[in-house]
Write a structure and sequence with these properties.
The protein is of the alpha/beta class and 328 residues long. The protein has ten helices and 14 strands. It has two domains: 198 residues, NAD(P)-binding Rossmann-like Domain (Rossmann fold, 3-Layer(aba) Sandwich); 106 residues, UDP-galactose 4-epimerase, domain 1 (Alpha-Beta Complex). It comes from Gluconobacter cerinus.
Length: 328
């Protein structure tokens, strides 16, 4: 089959590209490279450097179908940044997605996979796994922007027949077990690569934002899913679009605290991780864990490499081989 991957040069998108190529599919990537990396993509992949704010350029690429599916990963995605610049996040994520969805409707695309977020559920303190039918209460402008887009997709299906799979995933982490691609953000904001860099002596002491949450050790708890398992989930979700649009939570159902992340990095690296407590950040809920029972039941998906030490080990091997990311 043939797919257009929007934001395919980013962390999750590049792993999905590899999963599709490994399955024998044809892949074309659209990315503005604001946070993605051309080096994350094999030379064999068709690539277009286009900004989704440019509707004409976006529509021109989408018109090069037919596509068996369009997958949308491109977005601003740092919760803390969205708390500082809420209107920028709301405007950017909404308008870029609106342009892409309109181009898909105009060109009669039938299947659309949307990278949504667990930040939809970041409102009040939640201390149990979150089911798919939980009330949406975004705790940040980032989460709100994703919900805007989910509503656009609802109407795109109801009126134009564009079926969509909205995947509300939790904390993507790790790296391709074969070492082909990994995580490279500038600046890096994700806990696992930051902790690994401290263990490897590349950063000073780690800051843990908030040690007074109502959790087992006072630090935030998150559901970490290996990015390879997440890529598999995207491919499985496509089959559901033969009959209807769907929305799923994608996670392991198990949560790890920030302190447990540090302990895992210490186990895997054999090095001590220096850390210090810092005040809470706005928009950070105490706990986010996915109940993905519906997705597992309907698709047969199960995470295969998402135990914490495997996530950390693959991420660490990537960082060791690529100390400067794709700039090596």
């Amino acid at each position: 089959m043939r797919f257009l991957i929007v934001g395919g040069a980013g962390f999750v998108g590049s792993h999905v590209v590899l999963a599709l190529l490994d399955g024998g599919h044809d892949v074309v990537v659209l990315d503005n490279l604001s946070t993605g990396h051309r080096a994350a993509l094999p030379d064999s992949v068709g690539f277009h450097q286009v900004d989704l704010l440019d509707f004409s350029a976006t529509a021109k690429i989408v018109a090069q179908g037919p596509w068996d599916g369009v997958m949308h990963f491109a977005a601003l995605s740092v919760v803390a940044d969205s708390m500082r610049e809420p209107l920028h996040y709301l405007r950017q994520n909404y308008l870029t997605s609106l342009n892409l969805i309109q181009a898909c409707i105009d060109n009669k695309v039938k299947k659309f996979i949307f990278s949504s977020t667990a930040s939809l559920f970041g409102g009040p303190e939640r201390l149990e796994p979150i089911p798919e039918n939980a009330a949406v209460q975004p705790g940040s402008p980032y989460g709100e922007s994703k919900f805007f887009i989910e509503r656009v997709l609802h109407w795109a299906d109801a009126i134009h027949g564009l079926r969509s799979a909205t995947l509300r995933y939790f904390n993507a982490a790790g790296a391709d077990p074969a070492g082909r691609v990994g995580e490279d953000h500038n600046p890096e904001t994700h806990l696992i690569p930051l902790t690994i860099d401290v263990a490897l002596g590349r950063r000073p002491a780690l800051k843990l934002f908030g040690m007074d949450y109502p959790t087992r050790d006072g630090s935030c708890i998150r559901d970490y899913i290996h990015v390879t398992d997440l890529a598999d989930a995207h491919i499985r979700a496509l089959c559901q679009l033969d009959t209807r649009s769907v929305a799923y939570n994608i996670g392991t159902g198990r949560g790890y605290s920030n302190l447990e992340i540090i302990q895992s990095v210490e186990r895997v690296s054999g090095k001590k991780v220096l850390w210090e407590a810092a005040p809470r950040r706005g928009g950070d809920p105490a706990m986010l864990i996915a109940n993905s029972n519906t997705f597992r039941k309907e698709t047969g998906w199960t995470p295969r490499v998402s135990d914490l030490d495997s996530i950390v080990d693959t991420a660490m091997q990537w960082r060791k081989k690529h100390p400067y990311g794709y700039e090596n």
